[in-house]
Amino acid sequence: MTRLDNEIVVITGAAGAIGAETCRRFAAAGAMVAALDKVKPELGQVALACDLADDCSVEAAAAHVRAELGDPSIVVHAAATTEFATTLASSPQAFARVYDVNVGGAVRMVQAFAPAMIAAGRGAVALVSSINGHFGAPGLAAYASSKGGLDALTRTLALELAPHGVRVNAIAPASVDTPLLRASFALQDDPEAALANNVLRHPLGRLGTPADVAALLLFLCSAEASWITGACVPIDGGASIARR
Fold first, then answer.
1. I need a labelling partner for 188 at 20 to 30 A (CA). Which of 26, 57, 74, 80 fits?
2. Does one domain contain both 76 and 189?
3. Residue 86 lies in a domain
């Protein structure tokens, strides 16, 4: 069983389905968890409300985590926001808002916690990207663009931090069964048909689960993945090999 005994981990988006399951999985593996979200999460040894798009909010949260638990050796950025709109129906302001949480939030987390990892000569960062960062995603223009940016950030950070023993990886889920995904189906004329059609896009014949995602994040942040960095690992039920 993968263990993270006594490791200190910061998890963003911890009030969401994927973030909360990740908190539970990391805690079960022995980690001390600092859980962050825009609303205070219910999990973690430390649970904080934090606006990832706000420099002062992130700085205050980082100081609190260090005071309560110490310097984290692992950062998992699972927080994300979206807009359901095409490029022409969106606005530059909406693009900037989505980017500032999805990518800017990752940057703020790394800037807050990577210096201590560098000093220690070890650490791991895992970023939750999306299959939509690689494929076209009509109706999710700002979200897809931000996830493409997150993929590029992963590769750049991995190269910058590798000499210091700090690994940076991303994962690229397809459709994971969360309240946010269900809300997107609810916007369609026939939500049940939208769900069924979405399932058909995945050769394994089902949606992903938060537990699927949390298990991969745990592996990538563990010593078992000590020779993996700069990767964006698909977790998509085969959707990226049979895009349909």
1. 80
2. no
3. yes
Find the catalytic residue in 43, 141, 143, 146: 143
Burial class (CB in 10 A: 0-12, 13-18, 19+), 200: exposed
Whether 185 and 106 map to the same domain: the answer is no
For the chain, 244 residues long, the average pLDDT of each consecutive 10-residue run is 94 98 98 98 98 98 98 98 94 97 98 98 98 92 97 98 98 95 89 95 97 98 98 97 80
- CB atoms < 10 A from the CB of 74, how many? 26
Note whether 21 and 212 are within 8 A (CB).
no
**Same domain? 88 vs 179:** no
Q: How far apart are CA 90 and CA 142, in angstroms?
A: 8
CATH code (residue 62): 3.40.50.720
CA–CA separation, 100 and 147 (whole Å): 11
Structure tokens at 190: 């026939």
Three-state SS at 49: strand
Q: How many CB atoms lie within 10 A of CB 5?
A: 8
Helices (H), 84-178: 92-102, 104-120, 141-161
Q: Is residue 143 among the annotated active site residues? A: yes
Residues in the chain: 244
- E strands along the chain, which residues? 8-12, 32-37, 46-49, 74-77, 123-128, 166-173, 232-235
